[in-house]
Amino acid sequence: MSTEARPADADRPTLPPAARPGLPAGEVDTPALLLDLAAFERNLDRLQARADAAGVQLRPHAKAHKCPDIARAQIARGAVGVCCQKVSEALPFVQAGIGDIHLSNQVASPAKADLLARLARHARMSVCVDSTRQIDLLAAAVRTHGSTLGVLVEIDIGQGRCGVADAPAVLRLLEHLERAARQGAGLHFRGLQAYHGAIQHLRDAAQRHQQAALAAARAARVLTALQHAGVACPVVTGGGTGSVAADLASGLYTEVQPGSYVFMDGDYALNEPGPADQALRFEHSLYLASTVMSTAGGTHVVLDAGLKSLATDSGLPRVCAVGGGATGHRYLAANDEHGIVQPAPGAATLAEGEPLWLVPGHCDPTLNLHDQLVGCRDGRVECIWPIAARGLSR
Amino acid sequence: MSTEARPADADRPTLPPAARPGLPAGEVDTPALLLDLAAFERNLDRLQARADAAGVQLRPHAKAHKCPDIARAQIARGAVGVCCQKVSEALPFVQAGIGDIHLSNQVASPAKADLLARLARHARMSVCVDSTRQIDLLAAAVRTHGSTLGVLVEIDIGQGRCGVADAPAVLRLLEHLERAARQGAGLHFRGLQAYHGAIQHLRDAAQRHQQAALAAARAARVLTALQHAGVACPVVTGGGTGSVAADLASGLYTEVQPGSYVFMDGDYALNEPGPADQALRFEHSLYLASTVMSTAGGTHVVLDAGLKSLATDSGLPRVCAVGGGATGHRYLAANDEHGIVQPAPGAATLAEGEPLWLVPGHCDPTLNLHDQLVGCRDGRVECIWPIAARGLSR
């Protein structure tokens, strides 16, 4: 290489980009998170069409992608807005101009309530509560900032995490909320949140649909009791990727919150689809590009991607060829920065330097490890999207 | 609050800092990663003193902390430099002026070799190899950038990951390396790397020391064979936090690479100390500050810290009071952004808004989730250190 070809910053070391538009997808510097744009767009289209047909609003969960470019693609197709799970996570979406964000979670400290009330000056924001203390924190914050917040009471429909148990508990919170509103706080009751995370990952389709129906029935009983008490609930929000066919058919939800459908991870792919899920099959669009970095071991090879590049809480990744094709290679163990892979019996030798794509077991915490998503189409890099909310867990 | 007290940026939402120097440690916005500076400094002093006494150089692994401020504290006490695991991870350390970095890993792509050769213009860099192809990539890169690299051959002493098996394999690589050097590449053989990660986490002290001795003996046989072949190995590097007492006593290692000793995580704390470890007990210095965000469930409470704030690959976190005292509360399950905690039987009620500190199961991937480390002393925030290499896995 001539001296002219040396980078001008040779004496100021910086990190070169992992990819540039036009680069063959197999040549991205690894580990890097890749998005198959065609599969991604089909996933978005598929769910939006089904939600439209069901007359249910789609409010995808942005905790899965943390990426304003993806939120814009969802809203362009008809989504009413997005969900976020943390106040700080919502910030880059507000900054990117996303106009309607539901915080599907409780806010339990003055600092977080303050940030939320500030964000509500720039976007239509709503938030969940399950205690009077949270209402008091929100009331103080919206008074400080002169903003308004939609408030949804979360009910526990079997998840056993957050949320109150029954209609009397909802009514007690509503009374507290109305008192705060009468005293001038810009808090408006918007409805109920009813979410059951554990159902999402039930493998058996019949069991998953049955449990989703039971959870919806539990929410419906609370809703009916509120209606008898003269309380209108304009919104009932909840649901997820695993139960979305049942959620859309339930007659309960006015909006659904799936997140992972955008990517389809290894865990969700293990859900057996039932008859009702057939029109809602999602495709893997998310891959972690990795490279064989050592073959010295002989019977195994070592990839350059481990715990710091992909989440393993829902299982080890599936090993694919560049482009996503099956290989039969097995990812045996994740060290911090290494993945041990057993080549498929009879497969051609895996050479040092060879790229392999991995389907992560769990998409949400995998996205949370990366600063950017490399969008690919027809085998080439098309775009690089910042994962702007990565690490924003406050 | 008066209008004057409103922040000036009320119409330009930004994320307020989690903490400022002087803030009581229990009031940091959560989740936030905290460093108990006194315990941290004792850990650093303790290992440096023991390494000095053993006449072994200390080259702590920066993959554990990814934080140039911590590297500086280690070097100020006598460490000869640091290790990094990825080329991109080394970049912020070079930018921060760390002058001696060993990449304890293989580099298997031209882009990574190129960055390494660029970094070697600014700091004394070395790297591991276990193939001739890696040597060729390094040779091309140092030629391009006119830099020099130390090269260590990694040998497999039982880990079964990277590294060649025996002295003849080392000699074949040395021959290849010498040929590249004769052709003008700035590559210099510096010695051997011999690391066995699995030993680090053996619970039984006798078994751990026995396995460490076996691994060291395996390395010693390779070293002796090289000496018989007339090859000098100025450096033998390896070892980790779990085996460091044995490594220092082995007579094999000229330098050791422990990383986690800085923090002591939940997993390492489960190692039973043997007689030889007694002078090298490390203290928990790393905590994830969290807050009780919902108590609606009644029999459990929900923390605001889950998979996106702490790594669970080596077990769930231990629940402590602010300051690190034991509580007996049990962290039962980590969702993406929630932690389910069962209060200790007979404990005082855990109230919404109450801060709790968690000891992560595995420090390295937990640091990799956070952008900053909040240093505390005597119950107050003292400093905020960027985790500058977070996410740098390329």
From TrEMBL, chains A, B:
It comes from the Bacteria. Keywords: Lyase. One of its GO terms (biological process) is D-serine catabolic process. SMART domains: D-ser_dehydrat. Residues 1-23 are annotated as: Disordered. CDD domains: PLPDE_III_LS_D-TA. Residues 1-12 have a biased composition (Basic and acidic residues). InterPro entries: Ala_racemase_N, D-amino_acid_metab_enzyme, D-ser_dehydrat-like_dom, D-ser_dehydrat-like_sf, PLP-binding_barrel. GO terms for molecular function: D-serine ammonia-lyase activity. The keyword Lyase applies. Residues 285-377 form the D-serine dehydratase-like domain. Belongs to the DSD1 family. This is D-serine deaminase-like pyridoxal phosphate-dependent protein. It comes from Sphaerotilus hippei. The lineage of its organism: Bacteria, Pseudomonadati, Pseudomonadota, Betaproteobacteria, Burkholderiales.
